[in-house]
């Protein structure tokens, strides 16, 4: 599969489950912007081939059929949160993070209040301070209201 997009039903289902896409994306042939992360749509057996072939890359599964692939293992949602908080001079205890995937766990545990989306995995929910409804059901708004933030 050399194209950016495929008509594979597993990929389409994963895109719908993770991004709530109503329309399948068009192929992108020429990429000129620098990339920091790509998504690999693969089951465990397929992904293992990539992991073995590209040991310098970091593979982080956040859905049953989707993995983030990063060139720099020091880049994560946690490091992004840390940089933003530092830039805005906000303490981590004052921060709230929302997440729905396994790649959100360390971020949720770092901030003062970690909120797992209802559609998130069980491990994420166990480690969160609060579990809200699904993202597609207004989970962020629901949590902010329940926590008396809005």
Automatic annotation (TrEMBL):
Family matches, as PROSITE patterns: COF_2
InterPro entries listed in its UniProt record: HAD-like_sf (IPR036412), HAD-SF_hydro_IIB (IPR006379), HAD_sf (IPR023214)
GO cellular component terms, A-Z: cytosol
GO molecular function terms noted in the UniProt entry: magnesium ion binding; phosphatase activity
Listed name of the protein: Haloacid dehalogenase
